[in-house]
Every structure is written in C-alpha cells, then in structure tokens.
Amino acid sequence: MYSTVVSDVGTVRSNNQDSAFAGEHLIAICDGMGGHAGGDTASTIAIRSLAHIEQDNVQGDVQIIAHMMETSVMAAHDAIVGKAKRERRLAGMGTTVTSVALVAGYWVLAHIGDSRAYLLHDGRLIRMTSDHSYVQHLIDTGRISEAEARNHPQRNVVMRVLGDFDIDSSPDIAIRKAHPADRWLLCSDGLCGVLEDSTLQEVLSACSDQEECAQQLVSMALRAGSTDNVTAVIADATLALDADAFDLPHQTPLVGGAASASLEPIADIINEPVASAPALREGKKSPAARAAALRNGKNPNEDDNPPEQRVAQPSTVREENGDRTNPDTGEIPVVQKDDGRISADPNDPEVAKAIRNEHIEQRKTKRTRTRRNRVIAIIVTIVVLLGLAGGAFATYRWSQTKYYIGDDNGEVAIFQGVPTSLFGFQLSHAVTDTHMKTSELPPSWQEQLAQGISFDTYGEAKTHTRLIKKQLKQQQDEAAQKEQDKANGESDNKSSGTTSDKSSGKSDKSDDASANKSGGDQS
C-alpha cells in the first residue's frame, strides 16, 4: 500500500502529542495524553514499538502478524509504564493506538482508545473501530445519541488506553480481507471529533491524491473549531496489494507528530530510511506560535514556509558516514544481531531475551531500592522515637522543677510537677498533705484547686498553703463566733423571758395581798 500522514499541533495546544507512522505495510496513529511532557513521549514510544512490523518477514502468516501487533502494543504499554516510573514528571502519561498492517492480502487491525480507523470500501465508509470511551459506552447502552456525544462534558474520558493507568491495556484485534481499491483513514479525535462521518466519506471519495486528501481533512477540522492536535493518515491499497510482486516503486515511510522529532531510532528499528511527514500547508497558528512570531518581530497572521521534510538513515548508513549514535526507542530494548542489523521487535528471541534481562535487572533494582528504603524508614523511625523520647524526658525534667497546689482525692495537697500528662504519663505527684479537706474550702477555691495553683518553688507552694490554712481557720473561727453569738442571743432572750415571768408573779401576789388587806379593813 501507499500511505501518507499530515499532523498539526492545532490552534490551542502548545505541543503536538499525536504521533503517526505511514509505511508500505504498516500505518498507525497514536494520540498521547498526560500533560506537557507526557503525551508526546507515550505516543512516540508506541510508534517505535510497532514500527518493526513494517519490515518483519513472516512469510505472509496473518496470525503471526496479528499476534505480533498485540504483543507490540502490550510491549509499548510496559515501556510507557517503565519510563513513567523512572521519570516521575511523566507519571500519568498514556496514549491511544490504532494500527493497520497489510499482510498476504489481509488487513490486520489493532486498536485501543478513542482514535479511529475508517475503511472506504466500494464507495461506502465503514467505521472499523469502536471508541473505548465513556460516551461510546453511553451510546452503546442507548443513554445518549451520537449528536449528544459530540458536546458531552465527558467526551474525552477514555476507558481503555496504554499507559500509567490501572485499566485494561489489551488491544482489540481484527482481520479483514483486503481489496485493491480499499482506502484507510486513521485519525485522532481532534479530527473525527469535529467532522461528521458523511463529510469524511465525501472528502475521501472525491480526492484521489493521498496527501491532498489528508491536507484537506486536517484543514477542515481546524476550521471546524477543533481544539486538539489533528492528525490524519491516509493509505491506499495498490492494485497488486504487494509492491514487490510487480516491481512497483517503493515509498519512504513517513513519521508525523511527536515521533518525528527523532527519526533515527525508527530508521534503526526498520533498518531503512524514514522521513518526516509533510507539514500542513494552511491553517491558523496556535496561540503559542503566534506569541513566538510576535517576539521575533513577525506577523503572527502570516504562515511561515513549511519546514522541509527531514530524512534519517539507519545506523548502518550513519556509521559509514561517521555519524553513529545510540538508538533510543524509549524503554524498548534494542539489540544488534549477528548480521549487524538493529532490532527492537519484542517478538525477536534476542530482543525478548534482552527484555527479560532488563526485567530481572529492574526487579533487582527494585528490591535493592525497597531494602534501602526500608532501612532508611527504620533509621528515621528510630531517630524520631529517640527525639520524642528525648523531648519527653526533657519535658519531664522541666516539669519536676515546678509545684502546684491541687486536689488529691478530696484532700488539699502540694504536687511536684505540672497538672497535665504526656502520652498518658502523669507529670506530677503529691509530695505534701496539708490535712485540709477540699470540701471545707469555698467553691471558688475548689475551682482553682481543680485547675491547679502553680508555683515555681516548693517554698512558694508551702507558704500559700499556710495562707489558705490561715484564711480557712479565720473563716472557721468567724463562723464559730457567729454560731456562738447566735447561741448567746437565743440564751439571753430565754433569760429575759424567765425574769419577766417572775416579776409578773410577784406583782400579782402583791396585788392579791393588797386586795385582801383592803377587804379586812372594810369589815
């Protein structure tokens, strides 16, 4: 097949997190996610993990290719997770993967996420993938319509994706018979999220030139208001479905989006030259690009000349030219085979062995790190405990220089320490009993004793207890005096009453005597 790709950062984003590959036997689109530094890394790793399928010789075995695509996607998942663990700034990164391979007259499709694959067959556009997204689940269950899904607030929530997430990362695999007139469109949701399927069918049917078709679709998506990166991969089956069989001209594989920033690793993986994808020829610049143009004194509304396509040679050619660099495939082991060819195919026995060895080293490193962290945790715990113990001891020593007067089971006592506790341990104890009962004190004093009356020295506390005892005795004496006075008053009243009675009796007797005497005189 012949294929091309056009990818654009869009009008809102500051960097392109999409990555794409367009070759003769393999096409792929990956839509990265995970912040400024994560999405482009994840999508690049996925493209590099799949790229080996472009050149793998499997004698036309469709099932082997299907298995290779599945294991390559899973290898990309492991590589993304591994890199995220090594570089915490990349935590949470992930990517979608939608890839199609042509082998022995069959299409083999691998898909995970919400990027899409469309097949134009006999003039009819068929959506070959189902979005692994929350809104697609709502559509499938009849809760919302396709039209409602376009504006749903959770339309960007994916339920299956590769990356640093605790979700299913296994791809859907499909096999379909290929036909010479088949045309594929792989695109990120920045394109299919704003253009109707009917529009896609119209453009794919009307525009025979691959690059022109991709340019139109990306431009239309941007004009329709797409706020995401926009990428389109177009692939057409050749009449023979095999360029080698009829000595047809070969194309140089194209790499678009984030993965095109470093072409050499992909050239090493497939062991042939690769080129960067053509840039979008028209379209508005992103806010970041316009700001950069203003800083450079340029008109932000004028498009710069599109950058020239770059071509990267494989390591064998670069080595001859004295430009040999170590390939970086993003956590995927690279081995050099006996014939000098570089391979990063996870199905290659030597690469698989390298992966196993790397996993063993990772486990050893993890165990060492775990032991080291455990020792550090124990040391830190001991230091903290010693610090707490030292602090507690210092607090106790300080508390024993203080004294207070308080209640000791109903008795007024002098305590050494402070009226509180530390970790359940009382910081005071009674040292002197004053032989005064708390209940004998006025309520205001009882409240003070409940809180504790603090002093800096034992002498001050002792002096205060004497004062309390003296005041208590005075109060008791005053109370006793009042009781005595009250008793005396009652006694005086009783004595006065008795004297009055006696006087009254004498008066009565005198009156009687006088009366008797008067009576005698009359007679």
UniProtKB/TrEMBL annotation:
Pfam families: PP2C. Residues 2-237 form the PPM-type phosphatase domain. This is Protein phosphatase 2C. Gene3D superfamilies: PPM-type phosphatase domain. InterPro entries: PP2C, PPM-type-like_dom_sf, PPM-type_phosphatase-like_dom. CDD domains: PP2Cc. SUPFAM superfamilies: PP2C-like. One of its GO terms (molecular function) is protein serine/threonine phosphatase activity. Keywords: Membrane, Transmembrane, Transmembrane helix. It comes from Bifidobacterium pseudocatenulatum DSM 20438 = JCM 1200 = LMG 10505. Residues 317-326, 475-493, 503-514 have a biased composition (Basic and acidic residues). Residues 278-348, 469-523 are annotated as: Disordered. It comes from the Bacteria. The chain crosses the membrane at residues 90-109, 375-396.
